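Morning!

This is the sequence you dropped in the shared folder:
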Amino acid sequence: MKLAEMILDEMDNISKAQKHFFTLLMQTIVSMYGHINFRSLSRYSFMSEKTFRRWFRIPFNFVEFNSNAIAKVLAPEDEVVAAFDQSFEGKAGKKTWGKSFFWNGCASRAEKGLELNLCALIDVKKNIAYPLTTEQTPAESEIKLQFASHDSEEPTRIDFYLSCIYKVYLLLLKYTKYFAVDGYFTKKKFVDGILQMGFHCIGKLRSDANLKILYTGKQKNGPGRPKKFVGKCKIKDLQGFTFEQDLDTETKLYSGFFYSPSLERKIKVVAVVQTKKNKIGIALCFSTDLTLDAFKIYLYYKARFQIEFLFRDANQFTGLGDCQSRNKESLHFHFNASFTALNLIKVQDQLEHKDQEIGRPFSMASYKARYHNESMIGIFFSMLGFDQTSFKLLPIYQKILNYGVIFSGSY
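The structure's back. Tokens below.
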């Protein structure tokens, strides 16, 4: 974990003991198998379960750590888009902080558990997402207390999501002015909040969205309000859209400028039309930046899906949903540590293969197997009293490290 040590040395207000613990934690998470909780962490390291529990209650600046890591592979001139999304995590325990009813996409219904929201930066050219920070969504009652105001409007989870983004928006603006979200966030309060921070919002509309076609003809002279709209857009007939380009033999791109009554603003809408077996499917993306190219809107929204792979890999390989604690601080530390371990591997992979072709496969499972093999060899040799210095120079050492990996071309 030389990369982790390098990043920790760049951070201020962190003790030597915390640096040592955090480096050991990252190394253990990426090299162990099974559930990643306090008990399992103690089995794969020389620290006790109680030590892990104690350190997980101590605050750590994950935002600074991840931003320093991301800065090593992303530059302000790179084509980058910010993304935000939530994930449902099942959790037992009546006293677990933040446990409430949240939408579970896998079950297509609201269930009792925890919800995490993740803010990430996505390299559009390489199609890679890097997690920046995650926070746990509180229960509805706590949100109402936290965001209570004198306004008549009742606080919602949208207020909490915007507050999470506001904490890191200056870091995000260093790389991009575009913020991509899924259809859930196509709400006036969220879009207005994103625009106030200095971003342009890129999102998705319903296939039956209410869009009004703008009137561009000559206005009549005389009294009365100028004509603004021609009428409501019939999306199936692609009214108000103009052809942009073919994406492939079955997919075409159309775009147009419309007024959205729900967002109360003019937006640029891109229609992705797919014809397959004489059936036509239409998906609608939009941007608040009216000057943005239609293909860029499609590309940026498509890149947003990379954040879903962060949730997948964190659940499968870095123990996102395995925390044993019910404590708010410990849960926050565990969720961020899980994404940070994943971020370290992604950054390390890019640093080691910066000169290779774009689109090279990334396998978290392969890195996990390699680190596990390296850890086991180190333990065996230290216990048997063998010197590893000369052995690491042999070609067979790399062969042993790659035992069980899926894609050995990663190294």
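Headline: The chain has a mean pLDDT of 91.

More detail when I'm at my desk.
O.
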